[in-house]
Every structure is written in C-alpha cells, then in structure tokens.
C-alpha cells in the first residue's frame, strides 16, 4: 500500500504529519517504510534519527558521442530531435549531460550508431531503520540530490523503484513528497494508492491547495485533506476553506489544531506523539479515515 503525503505549499506540516503517522503506525504493529521523496531538502531523518545501513549512488542515462562514427554536418538528426537542447552542433556534436532527460531518442535516431549510453550520478539513496520505541522499527529510504543537479524527478523515480522492491513491498509505504505541484511532486505521486493533502487555513494555504487538488484530479488519483493548524486564522476557519471543501466534495480526513506547544516540539525535532501524547488519538483516527476513504474510492475492502 503506497500512501503519498503532499501539500500545495511548503511549511504546512507535511513532514510533521509523515513522520508522526509513520511512527504511530509502526508502534501499533504495522510494517512501515517512510520514503522521503523531497530529495532537494530531505528532513524526515531529523525527527527519526535513523541508522543508515546502506548508501547507493543513483545514476541517470546520458549520451556519449563517438565522434569517429558521426556523419557530421550533413546529418545533425540528434541535435534537431533533442527537445531539451542537450546536444548542440559546434563543428562537431557536443553533449551537455546536465540538460539531458535520459529519453534515449538521440541514440535511437542516430543513423550511424555514433551515440551510446553513458551515465552520470544524480545523487544518493540511503537505506536505514529508525527505532520508534516499544520495540518497533521503522524502515526508511531517503534520497539526496547531487549539488548542482538541475532535475530531481529521475532521482525520485529511482527512490520509488527501491520502495516498490523487496523488502519494502511488505506493509505500508508512506511517501513524504516535495511541496508544490511541479514535476518533482507529480513524479512522487506516480502509482500512489491514495494521497493525503496537507493544508492550513490561510489564504496562501487555500490558494495552493486548489492547485494541488487540480493536479490530483488531472492524475485521476483519490485523495483527502488534512487541515493542519486548524483555528490559526479566524477569517478562514469554518468559512472559506471549509465551504470550499464541502462544495468540492473533498473529504476532510483529520484536523490538527493550531498549537504553540506543537510548533515548539517540531522546532526541536521531536515527534508530536511523544511531546504531546494527546495527539496520538488524532493520528489513529486519521489512519482509520484514510482506510475508509480508500475503500470507498476502490469500491472494495482494504487491509493494512
């Protein structure tokens, strides 16, 4: 079961929800993997202090030009066909790996077999476990993009391939997605069974929630909303946001009240279910509601 946790904007509490839900599920007997897909700024490890047991380099395919085979100025098919401008003609074909999306079209199009596949390092993927207490252990995957790397989707895709392979296929996989609605987020959502959208009752939160909802609907994936910091804005609470969610028939999975104590605990890198034990029941209720909504969306029964 693959559950994505996303938000239209940063700072809504997406990672806070991810790490606390993962730890709570783990403590209640579930087999859980937390995949930190925010490869440009992974921070789940701050709350869970995992022991990394393995680090793998992730590579992306790029073209390598064999100049002796190149037909030269009379051809230039590879240059003309590359929509990402990763190849250019400068007296000979020059390649710019940082611009390459790894589609492989240039290799297919070259009539002289002058382009072969090479690779470049995109970043690293860490594998590890975190002790969540009560004798439970949480499996963790986390990607870190190479400094200077322009594109994060290929690394996110590699991370998700790991998450879809043994031993991570057993149990629940929670994906802590990047914020926003751009390519990294869409890549993080690919193949998810359900998405939890985290928002806050502010004008900015609602604006970006609308964009996130549009994205999920275009992808045709089921989702529900968690309202974090509920009560922080009297102008939005119970009026604009709730009215819009009701009008759009979007299920509210849970509400987490605005709390200065919760903000302090997060700033110290402490799990809320430890710092504020009364929040535990809210995470239990959230998970129960997620399963209910997933069952409705699929028209069948689910077992976590």
Name a few traits of the molecule.
304 residues; alpha/beta; nine-stranded mixed beta sheet; two-stranded antiparallel sheet
Q: How do the strands and helices of this protein lay out in sequence?
A:
Blueprint: E1 2-6, H1 14-27, E2 32-36, H2 44-48, E3 51-65, H3 77-81, E4 87-89, E5 93-95, H4 105-109, E6 115-133, E7 136-145, H5 153-163, E8 172-176, H6 183-189, E9 194-199, H7 203-219, E10 223-230, H8 236-247, E11 252-257, H9 260-267, H10 272-275, H11 280-298
Parallel strand pairs: 1-8, 1-9, 2-7, 2-8, 9-10, 10-11
Antiparallel strand pairs: 3-6, 4-5, 6-7
Task: Give a structural overview.
The chain is 35% helix and 28% strand. With 304 residues, the protein is an alpha/beta fold. The strands form 2 sheets. The protein has a 9-stranded mixed β-sheet, with helices on both faces. Strands 4-5 form a two-stranded antiparallel ribbon. Helix 7 links the parallel strand 9 and strand 10. The radius of gyration is 22 Å and the shape is elongated. The model has no long low-confidence stretch (mean pLDDT 92).
């Amino acid at each position: 079961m693959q559950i994505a946790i996303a938000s239209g904007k940063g700072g809504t509490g997406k990672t806070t929800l991810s790490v606390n839900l993962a730890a709570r599920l783990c403590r209640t007997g579930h087999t859980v993997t937390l995949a930190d897909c925010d490869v440009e700024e992974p921070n789940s490890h701050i709350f869970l202090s995992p022991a990394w047991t393995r680090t793998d380099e992730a590579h992306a395919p790029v073209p390598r030009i064999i100049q002796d085979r190149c037909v030269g100025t009379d051809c230039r098919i590879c240059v003309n066909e590359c929509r990402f401008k990763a190849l250019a003609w400068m007296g000979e074909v020059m390649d710019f790996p940082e611009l390459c999306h790894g589609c492989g079209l240039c290799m297919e199009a070259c009539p002289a077999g002058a382009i072969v596949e090479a690779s470049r390092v995109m970043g690293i993927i860490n594998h590890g476990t975190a002790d969540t207490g009560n004798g439970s252990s949480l499996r963790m995957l986390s990607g870190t993009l190479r400094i200077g790397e322009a594109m994060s989707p290929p690394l996110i895709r590699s991370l998700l391939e790991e998450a879809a392979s043994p031993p991570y296929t057993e149990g629940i996989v929670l994906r802590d997605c990047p914020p926003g609605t751009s390519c990294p987020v869409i890549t993080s959502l690919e193949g998810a069974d359900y998405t939890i959208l985290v928002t806050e009752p502010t004008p900015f939160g609602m604006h970006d929630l609308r964009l996130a909802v549009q994205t999920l609907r275009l992808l045709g994936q089921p989702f529900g909303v968690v309202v974090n910091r509920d009560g922080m804005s009297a102008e939005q609470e119970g009026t604009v946001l709730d009215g819009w969610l009701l009008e759009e028939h979007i299920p509210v999975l849970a509400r987490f009240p605005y709390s200065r104590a919760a903000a302090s605990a997060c700033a110290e890198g402490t799990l809320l279910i430890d710092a504020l034990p009364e929040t535990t029941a809210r995470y239990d209720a959230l998970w129960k509601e997620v399963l209910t909504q997933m069952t409705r969306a699929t028209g069948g029964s689910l077992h976590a």
